[in-house]
Amino acid sequence: MIDLGFILFYLSVGFYILGAIVPLAFSKNKTLSLKIGSYFGLTASVLGFMSGVFIFLLPNPILFNLLVIAPNIELQFYFDKLSAFFLLILSTINFLIMIYSLEYMKSYLNDNIAKFSFFYNLFICSMSVLFLVSNSITFLIFWELMSIFSYFLVTFEYRHQHVRKAGFFYIFMTHFGTVFIISGLLYWGTFSNGLNFDAMKIAAMHMSMFSKSIIFLCFLIGFGTKAGIVPLHIWLPMAHPSAPSNVSAMMSSVMIKTAIYGIFRFVIDMLGVGPIWWGSIILFIGIASSLIGVLYALMEHDIKKLLAYHSVENIGIIFMGVGLGVIFSSMSLYTFAAIAYCASLFHVLNHAVFKSLLFLSAGSISKIIGTRDMEHYGGLIKNMPKTALSFLIGSLAISAIPPLNGFASEYQIYISMLNLSYFAHSYWKLFAILSPVALILTGALAAACFVKAFSVSFLALPRSSEAKNAKEPNLMIILPEAILAFSCILLGLLASNILFYISKIVLQIDSNFNVVYFQTTNLLFFIIFGIFFSLSIIFGKIFGLFEIRKVPTWGCGINLNSKMEYTAASFSQPIRRTYSFFLRPNRKITVNPSKPLDILFSEDLKPPFTTYLYSPIRKFILNFSIKMRFLQSGYVHFYLAYIFITLVVLLLWYR
């Protein structure tokens, strides 16, 4: 089985590489180039999925050496259930996105489609290998490749200034995080006999808690930047809306989860049990990220930026589960830790499904209407009923409405929070009690946000000619959305079955994490639900309850038009006022003296993290750079002197 699993994975990587290179040979025929890149990617996704299944079914982890690149740099693969879990998510989501891209990318035929296929397939390939490598150097190499390839995808429409700006912020922040990951791994390597994961795991058993804590903080900042936790999230609502929607779906549903994989692999699996404050920091960051993310999402009328902020929110929810697991591990409550870790991984899966669904739906809408601004939508359910249904299911899932998958995983995290409030010591009691309150508030605000998003976009009257004349996209767009929507329902109904398999992942990380999830079929539920649904249809048909009546909307004697509708801004106004102490909206009212009835109102938000954190840092760096410009004199002998001085200092340091 191991041979077959590796062969399938090797073939998957090969097809991704072919999907990147072969379209370049047909770059002049853009339609053919798109099809070749997509078909190779589809094949690679199927092979990757099959490989993930075989790896997951392995009873024990397997270490496989492919080749030695240099001393301490080996292309070594570690096949275990954690790697297989993330590989399965990546392959499944990518398969559906590839189908979507066959039609969606036709609107980009005026651009270099071969270049897109090149970077996209290599982007997916780098993530696939990243989940399976077992050496710190090769992990960093593929981490960097993933970041670089995704940068070129974010800036695919580089002709727009806002896209170039978003790309700059993204590449800057991702390298900021990479610096901390490298620092943590290099510091860890000073205690280890090698940079392979198994050697580093053995070294962690003999390290002091102080050294472990330094490494933990480096990883928290490094992986947290890629995940988009507050306050390191500023790149996410800029990069995701700027990229094509299929890329946005992949980045939000899978790429940011590479950071979660990194935390599980390096912190939970390899570093081992830490002090209770590790988990408390992760839990606090999770709470802050979820609340702040959903608040700013509520204020948005750009549909893709709204979804990007919800990625911050859901990463916060995942961090809550991880933090709870670390706290329980510190208290030697391993069963409760396992429940929290299972809930966190389950939400990784669920978020990948419903967030890719929402981004794909948003992409099809924005392409048809020609804008991401929801203020120009309205009434789309009449002309795009299938897209509306898919978006509605995704909205219910992300709002944690039962019985969909978002509720299933968030409920498990909520149960873990209640467990913490029971076992917490006196000085943690208040924090433990407030944690589930924060999660409930997050869910309520998320529900309010998607009531706004769905109603403003799909209900009432069209607010633009494009919305009035919108048409349903073809099958290649609808099919992936329908599969993802059905998956949201299925994952919620079969939650116990999914958790049964996820518990095997946690148990393989540490044998102490023993938790029992009973594998049930829910057959009785399906039978009862099917009977009642069938009876309701028959009853409605017999008594004419489903008769459609078309009557004018009651408007107090006034003919209604689109100017009388709630807009996205007006819907969120009460919440904006309630949380104005944090959001700090900047309102401006302008009255034309010659036309007293001509009043212009504008309002914008200036995030406090930008105002009080990033702007001062930016000013300091600019001022410092100006003062240090004298070092760049332009004379070669000065530069040679700098090199000589640096060399002498290094020789003295390492003598």
TrEMBL record:
InterPro entries linked to this entry: ComplexI-like_HydComp, ND/Mrp_TM, Proton_antipo_N
A molecular function (GO) term: oxidoreductase activity
Keyword Cell membrane among record annotations: yes
Membrane-topology annotation of the record: Multi-pass membrane protein
Residue spans crossing the bilayer: 6-27, 39-62, 82-101, 113-133, 139-156, 168-189, 209-235, 247-264, 276-298, 318-346, 389-408, 428-461, 482-503, 523-543, 635-654
Main location: membrane
NADH:quinone oxidoreductase/Mrp antiporter transmembrane domain location: 135-423
Domain NADH-Ubiquinone oxidoreductase (complex I) chain 5 N-terminal: 72-116
GO cellular component: plasma membrane
Keywords: Cell membrane, Membrane, Oxidoreductase, Transmembrane, Transmembrane helix
Localisation per UniProt entry: Cell membrane; Membrane
Pfam families the UniProt entry points to: Proton_antipo_M (PF00361), Proton_antipo_N (PF00662)
Name this protein carries in UniProt: Hydrogenase-4 component B
